[in-house]
Amino acid sequence: MADNETIVLETTKGRVVIGLRPDLAPNHVERIKTLAGQGFYDGVPFHRVIDGFMAQTGDPTGTGSGGSELPDLKAEFNAEPHVRGTCSMARTNFPHSANSQFFICFDDARFLDKQYTVWGKVVEGMDVIDTINKGEPPRSPDKIVKASVGAAA
């Protein structure tokens, strides 16, 4: 996997490496790389963490209602299954509303298939994701300390 095909999340619980899938969702991958490169995700909490389901982050307000100043993305729904380690974009009920928030699946969540844009998968550090503090929001939320694109990590 080439350096520019990964995102490294240094979290309050440890290091997580996500393999990017531009073949599935080129615009979403580009957005994640752009925001990581700008430092947008640095210090952002995991604001919605449901045991056995997923850990969501990407909102600097920590409320689940915030995003970046960039325009929302057109959906790139694909057939990649939502299984353990899948990274997918969060959105509102409107399909073309993904912006900066994403989630990482703790377990299979196949009911999300073809309704959310899968853009990557955890290739290292899923054990770290498993330890993120749970809650909606967690009492003491874990954070992304720094997010970087591959070689920049």
TrEMBL record:
Domain PPIase cyclophilin-type span(s) in chain numbering: 14-153
Transmembrane segments: none
Annotated Pfam families: Pro_isomerase
Record's compositionally biased regions (Basic and acidic residues): 136-145
GO molecular-function terms, A-Z: peptidyl-prolyl cis-trans isomerase activity
PROSITE patterns documented for this protein: CSA_PPIASE_1 (PS00170), CSA_PPIASE_2 (PS50072)
UniProt entry keywords in alphabetical sequence: Isomerase, Rotamase
UniProt EC number: 5.2.1.8
Matches recorded under PANTHER family: PEPTIDYL-PROLYL CIS-TRANS ISOMERASE-RELATED, PEPTIDYLPROLYL ISOMERASE DOMAIN AND WD REPEAT-CONTAINING PROTEIN 1
Name by which UniProt lists this protein: Peptidyl-prolyl cis-trans isomerase
UniProt source species: Methylobacterium komagatae
